[in-house]
Amino acid sequence: MRPIDALVNSLSEARVVTDPDVIDSYARDRTFLEPGKPLGVVLATSRDDVVTTMKWATEHRVPVVPRGAGTGLAGASVAGDGSIVLSLAKMTSIRELSPADEIAVVEPGVITADLDKAAREHGLMYAPDPSSYEISTIGGNLATNAGGLRCVKYGVTRDSALGLEVVLADGRILNTGRRTMKGVTGYDLTGLFVGSEGTLGVITAATVRLRRAPAAPPATFAAEFGSLRDAGAAVSAIMAAGCQPSLMELLDRATLEAIDDWRNIGLEATTQAMLIGQSDAADGQAVVERMESICTGNGASFVAVSSSPAEAEELIGLRRLAYGAKERQGACLVEDVCVPRSVLPDMITAIEAAGERHGVRIATVAHAGDGNLHPVFIFEHGTVEPPPEVWAAADEVFKQALALGGTLTGEHGVGLLKRRWLELESGPVSGELQRGIKAVFDPLGLLNPGKAI
């Protein structure tokens, strides 16, 4: 009997998929990376399904690749040969939502936007909102420590994660963290699992922090600039002025052209960058007017301020179109370097220079308020591997980010794509310690091997 037959017998054929065509659809994420050939896919609907899978994997020494919706951009859920893909997308229960404690307990397959919608029925909100929030899952957000448009004010996913239910590699169940806003008992295992990309355990539930939703719709502005550097300088000035925006997004000319080609937004020939900002403070309109003035003082050629929630959503909608617009133009190597805000203009200049030097089309958007840039290297559709000039440009961008005191990834994670640069940032001592931590939780190396570290 094949090892996978024992898993089918334990979970049923409805839970274990072995059809090659169906398996292939679960073996990929949103990158260009080609997966291997997994043995099958487990469609888990409960924690017990995950426990059974991990016990079987340990017994038969089969690698396990956990996944959510497959919206990742670093290759963290790309399956390898001989693995079993463990899909958590069907675990969609919001087990608890407590307005009094401002927390929710959710399973990993809950769509991010659905949790936020449920919270708003009680005057609350779930703050993290990655650009893929309408299709990405809480489990995937936790695995990569996803950020989002509002992270400039509310932080990344780790800042909203209070506790986790985790199935370990051998099938044991671990509960980390707490339901309280404060707690320092023992090591921070919750923080360790968030961002670990499924390499330490499989998250089957999370206790997350909710926040009071703004009493009024946020005020929003969009400013056009004749250069990316001017836009970056405006961001630095806004943050230095203490405006505390709830959103601060930057789009370069290449991104705007891609959106205009798709949706005809009436892009002006002189516009080289657009800055979209928002304030959800009680005096949000006054804050936005102050940010408008700062943009004008830093060279903005035009600034539009929303007069209604519909107009505000239209402006934010431009930002959410960015990645889809670029995917229409070619295959994408999507990166997410993060630098100190004070050197944001220098990083923007370095990205432009790398593109020109290597003849590579780079379209950049940024969560500019916290220095997190997404340079997207676009190359021909159907190309299995980015051409050498793309890798050369990316190498230059990463090294420059590190030289400016930054990091290789602000929110997408390392996955498979960034492992080639990992040693440049972490160094040998950090690498040795991280491999040691991995060995404690996963001594057989079965959980998402080859990812993250």
UniProtKB/TrEMBL annotation:
Is the keyword Metal-binding assigned to this protein?
no
A family per Pfam = FAD_binding_4
InterPro entries assigned to the protein according to its UniProt record, in alphabetical order: FAD-bd_oxidored_4_C (IPR004113), FAD-bd_PCMH (IPR016166), FAD-bd_PCMH-like_sf (IPR036318), FAD-bd_PCMH_sub2 (IPR016169), FAD-linked_Oxase-like_C (IPR016164), FAD-linked_OxidoTrans_Type4 (IPR051914), Oxid_FAD_bind_N (IPR006094), Vanillyl_alc_oxidase_C-sub2 (IPR016171)
User: Is the keyword Oxidoreductase assigned to this protein?
Assistant: yes
Cofactor or coenzyme needed: FAD
Q: Which UniProt keywords apply?
A: FAD, Flavoprotein, Oxidoreductase
Residue span(s) of domain FAD-binding PCMH-type: 34-213
What is the name attached to this protein's record? Answer: FAD-binding oxidoreductase
Q: Native species of this protein?
A: Nonomuraea insulae
